[in-house]
Structures are given as structure tokens and as C-alpha cells.
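Fill in residues.
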């Protein structure tokens, strides 16, 4: 299988280099976290510029030029934060109207119940993720760990994936010991 070999070689090479992306399981998790990080940075920069503009305003001492610069800094900070949150709102509207938030992966603040799944599999977490990749898991993402009782693995669906001699679990994550 050439594709698997290429992926394995790339992964091994990146691991030798100290791969910073090794912990990233999918872009479904990475992209929302990067967007949240960008929002946090934008809010911090906004408050910093707002504070700096306020201090410049107070210390302008009647100097028209210094007062104009301070007002410009405060105005720029306000415009910037409005633009950032408008972009965030538009992104969420697009996701809502096109149903993108329900495609796969958790939305912000969701708990991945595969991390605490029970059973007698060799690797419970990876088994759950693998079975989910074949569409045989429902209720994987919940608001908190207490809701993970809603997680359902359809083993009949999974058994159908083995029909025709195919093995969708070459690493034997789901094999019980």
C-alpha cells in the first residue's frame, strides 16, 4: 500500500525533526482552537491599546496634537475589535447556515467522549475514534464528561466494515485481549 508507506515515511521524518504538529489529530479541532486563540489575542491587544490611548489622553495636558493621537488610538482599537468580532459572527453564521459545525469534530467547549470510553479493547480511545471515522458512533461529542452516557458505538455497523475480507482496523485497536 503505497499511500500508507508515504504517510509513514513523512511522519517518521517529521518526528525526527521534533514535529510540533504531532499532537494534532485533525484540523476539525485545530482550526477552532486557533480562531479562539486569535480572538483572545485581539481582545488583549484591544484592551492594551484602549489603556494606552486613555493614558495618553490623560497625560496630553491640553496639547491638541497629543489629544488627537490619543483619540485616534482609542478609535482604532474600537474599530479593530468591532471588525474582529464581526468576522467571528459572520463565520459562525456561515457555519450555521451551511451546517458546517455538524460535519465532524467538536465545537468549542465540547468534550470528546472517546477519551473515556469503556470496554475491553486494546486501545479504547483509538478504537472509538476509528469506529467513528467509519460513521458507526453517535454522541461522541458532549458538553461535558457527565453526558458521555449518550455515546453509542454501533457494533453491527462496524461488523459490516469487515465484510468482504477487508480489515478497517489494521492496528487492532478494537481487538479485545
Amino acid at each position: 500500500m503505497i499511500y500508507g508507506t508515504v504517510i509513514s515515511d513523512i511522519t517518521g521524518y517529521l518526528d525526527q525533526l521534533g514535529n510540533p504538529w504531532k499532537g494534532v489529530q485533525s484540523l476539525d479541532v485545530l482550526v477552532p482552537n486557533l480562531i479562539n486563540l486569535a480572538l483572545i489575542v485581539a481582545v488583549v491587544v484591544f484592551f492594551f491599546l484602549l489603556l494606552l490611548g486613555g493614558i495618553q489622553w490623560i497625560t496630553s495636558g491640553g496639547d491638541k496634537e497629543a489629544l488627537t493621537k490619543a483619540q485616534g488610538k482609542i478609535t482604532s482599537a474600537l474599530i479593530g475589535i468591532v471588525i474582529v468580532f464581526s468576522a467571528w459572527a459572520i463565520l459562525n453564521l456561515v457555519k450555521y447556515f451551511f451546517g458546517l459545525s455538524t460535519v465532524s469534530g467538536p465545537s468549542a467547549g465540547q468534550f470528546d467522549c472517546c477519551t473515556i470510553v469503556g470496554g475491553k479493547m486494546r486501545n479504547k480511545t483509538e478504537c472509538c475514534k476509528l469506529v467513528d471515522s467509519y460513521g458507526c458512533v453517535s454522541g461522541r461529542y458532549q458538553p461535558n464528561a457527565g453526558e458521555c452516557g449518550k455515546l453509542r458505538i454501533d457494533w453491527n455497523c462496524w461488523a459490516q466494515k469487515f465484510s468482504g475480507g477487508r480489515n478497517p482496523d489494521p492496528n487492532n485497536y478494537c481487538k479485545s485481549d
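The chain has two domains: 26-102, 111-165.
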